[in-house]
Amino acid sequence: MKFTYYNKLDSLRRYQYNYHLNKFKFENNVFLGKLNTILSKLYNNNIEFNIINQKSVTLNTDILTEMLTLKIRREKTNIVPLIKNVLQHFKLPKTNRVQEKSGWIKTSSTSLLENKYKNSSLISILNKNNLNIDENCSLNELLKEITNYSSKSFVSNGNINNVSNKQDYNNISNIIFNSIKYKNLEGVRLQAKGRLSRPGRADRSQIKLGWKGGLKNIEASYKGLSTVTYRGFDKPNISYSVSNSKRSAGAFAIRGWVSGK
């Protein structure tokens, strides 16, 4: 009992030390200020730090592939169980794939938002050809006309901060939030390729694959809607990264794809 108590105490001290270290790194201005002056002298330019608190490594393919390469560099690592273990950390939303691929389910009511516009994207809704509005119309007045809100719930100046009815405010915020694309995970694919055999064997290069979900863009592939395209082979809904490393058997590479919807 005495040893278990000291082990738990050491683990708590370790967590406390990491907490204070991260707080000193990012929240305290002393460390970032000194680092900013050093980097500014090296690059002869102004440096700006944009720090993002990320909840999971699954949201960034660069961190994910780098983590896998560090683990595969160990000689006794079994690659297939490692990839399966990583894929278990991806929590995909539970959706009806048939309903999602078929598009919007429309009813006989013509007043619904689904029947007025081709999709729920805010860019499609803000198109002036679809609405009888002026060019100087504000976003609040536009959303009020789209959703057929009563004029009693809005003040005369149309400021969203002065909305008296909380239900109307929540509906407007939901429309804006739902129009943001690629905020949910759709699928992931991991590929390990190279000299992945254990030392002492004469195997050639191997390929190990693991995937969960899909990588296709649902709006472009199934619904027939237009999407933004990037220059080259990059797709707007996929984040891709590759990481190279070596081990005693030879070189290998880890490739990762994470898609959103």
From TrEMBL:
GO cellular component terms listed in the entry, alphabetical order: ribosome
Superkingdom, taxonomy of origin: Eukaryota
Keywords recorded for this protein, A-Z: Mitochondrion, Ribonucleoprotein, Ribosomal protein
Name of the protein: Ribosomal protein S3
Taxonomic lineage from the root: Eukaryota, Fungi, Dikarya, Ascomycota, Pezizomycotina
